[in-house]
Design a protein that fits this description.
The complex is a heterodimer of chains A (about 220) and B (about 475). By secondary structure, chain A is mainly α. Chain A contains seven helices and four strands, in the order αααββαββααα. Chain A has two domains: about 30 residues; about 150 residues, Orthogonal Bundle (Cytochrome Bc1 Complex, Chain D, domain 2), CATH 1.10.760. In chain A, strands 1-2 form a two-stranded antiparallel sheet. Chain A is elongated. Chain B is mainly α. Helices cover about 75% and strands about 0% of the residues of chain B. The chains are: A mainly alpha (about 220), B mainly alpha (about 475).
Amino acid sequence: MSETHTQALWWASESFWRKMAIWVTAGSFVVLIFLTFDTVKQITAGTKRVPAYANALNHRIDYVFDEQRNFQVPVIGVEEPLFGKILTEEEAEALVSHGKLTTQAKNCMACHTLLGNGSYYAPDLTKSWLDQTWGSSAAREQAMVDFLMHPELAAHNSLGRRMPNLGITEDEARATVAFLKWMSSIDTNGFPANFKPIDQTDAAPVAAPAAVPAPAVEPASAQP
Amino acid sequence: MAAIGLPKTAEMNGGQKLAMKYFTVAIALFGAQVLFGMLAGLQYLNPDFLFGILDFSVNRTLHVNAMVVWLLFGFIGSVYWLLEDEAGVPIVGLGLANLIFWVFTLAVVVVVLVYLLVQVGPGEQSSIWLINEGREYIEAPRWADIGIVVCVLAFFYNVAATFMKGKFTNIGGVLVMDLVALAGIYLAGMYYTPNISMDQHWWWWVIHLWVEATWEVLVGCLMAYGLIKTMGVRRKIVETWLYIEVALMFGSGILGLGHHYFWIGTPEYWFTIGGFFSALEPIPLVAMVVHAVFDAGHHKLKSTNNPALAWIIAQAFGNFFGAGVWGFMHTLPQINLYTHGTQWTASHGHLAFFGAYATMVIAFLYIALQKWRGNVYMSGELIGAWKWKWAIFLLHAGMITMVMAMLISGYEQSQIERAIGGSDWMAYFAGQSHRWFMQGMFWRQIGGWVFTAGFVLLAWDLMTIGKRETRPALTVAAETAAA
């Protein structure tokens, strides 16, 4: 009796749910494909969200609060070429690609996160180009190269966690810095939030006059 | 009859003999996962431990890769196990299947040795082809990717051809379609681009559409078969449930992919799509709990194989809590902005992979061992039952301790590092050196030791269960199925 009653319930029948499974899966997949076409277009290098390689490497990258979107966004600023050299798009892409390959070959993601993905043993690298750790923005490029080549020598933190020496050559280190600078220009919808970027206003390559006011500021701020 | 309790491979079909080989490698790799996880965990407490010899990155890579591969071996073994039984005909292409097993296993050994001994390479294409692709979970070098695709295609051929020659049950149909998707999606991870946003976009196709869609459906198939085998649940009921699960799983999981597209450069519309659909993702997992628990209650927990049934029930709850609740907790963008890439994620990952997948493979190991021992008795009052009971208890106690400890560290990290500190390096280390964070890491390690003890006991039990039994398995299944 109850058997036949169960059979009668169309919404509890096997055939109904088989059709549902097929239609729901197919429908979701079609929507995903449409969205994927649009997303891939928007994240191709050279677009608003993901800048062209040369555009990022040849200019200053700022990370500023956007009132309308209500979070921080990267802004391409004044001309400020990486390692002092203006690159063509081809040269820039080759350099970033070499850096990206280095991050893969050294398995950076097995300790760090990139765009928040990876492992959690070491800091996120999404905006590492803009990190205050590098001190002054004028010294940043060389500081990053030196660090990447001999990370085991640097005391990073009170925990004693260190980055091992991964045999990164100078070329690989410079390429990695290029990759990191370019990555910091990607619009990540405000991730990481509340990030306080390095002061880049003194980054003009003319270093000589900048040395004079610098010591004057420090004692003043240290007084109270 | 006299041989009950003794290994009886002669009575198993070809697919089942092959499955035993896959299961053996799976358990060995499970052990490797535990070992390298413990080493990586110890490095949180003592960063100088094995520094420069087996760095955290090496241990962590081996920890997660051993997991992916042992689960894959477990799934493949489980499918070979049920294949002839479901299709009703001998497996098609068994010779090829056996060859592929050895090729696959050899490839895994080579990859592991390269991870251990070579570790890193120069920043060139040759490194990602030969050493390490450097992309979480799918670190395997490109040559191995191609090898995996070949192996999976051969596996797919065995499964599809056997079902086509015999009968296509509903479980068989869902399984074949799911394997098409599972294999196809892997291709999305096999290409190089300098563009990290593009890289991560396609990388998530593999990771998400595997673990939050196709793997879930695969374990749905395994659970359906497992419930029929252990309790004799009526096929029509489990297969209807299987379709419900597929509809809900793919309906929420496919577009749920969007919750990985909040912060990687992808457009803002993914906030809405990803948030909405991933919030629906727990629903099929609730359905699976209801389904498994209802069936178990309906059959008054009377089963032909108590350890397998226990692990199936553990799967239902582990999947719901690990994937469902722990996933939902941080899936909306408003919270994910602060939790993305913290120990919160690690907490979720541990409970979800263990709860949803490890449990199901272990259930199948018990189903397989029962037959291997000559269809031995495995119901109540089983001789030496304390071992499987203590193993399941210790594994869960250890896992829950680890998961809660990492969750607390994750709370602290998302507060101190993310919300207050602003996520820069100073803030990261302020969070990492905070006492609450370190307490979490300490307790995670304690949980790890408990889990390790559970694993050792499980391995021992798998080698010995049913050895001293002389009673044949209960036949409760056949009786109820006929009703």
